[in-house]
Amino acid sequence: MTRAGKWDFAKHEYRPYEIPDGWYCPLVLYDMGTIVNCASCGKDLPFGDTYTSRQIHNPFGFGYMVCEACMTKERMDESKAQKENAT
Ligand SMILES: [Zn+2]
Is the pTM of this model over 0.85? Predict the structure, then answer.
């Protein structure tokens, strides 16, 4: 498995996150058609259809690639945490 960090939008800190063996989660690829796994749910999709995660990062702070559904969920979690912090 690969050690990564998952940013907690509410607490502003990384939580340990492990990418399972067998998931292909490159940070950078030149061939947009290569099938990779979403670093969050593991879904297979072409690299060109992925989004850079705002939440799942490697130890150097680079975002892993996630699918559209997971990106949408991250955005919702982030805006929810911002609203809670503002009140
Ligand atoms: Zn996903």
Answer: yes
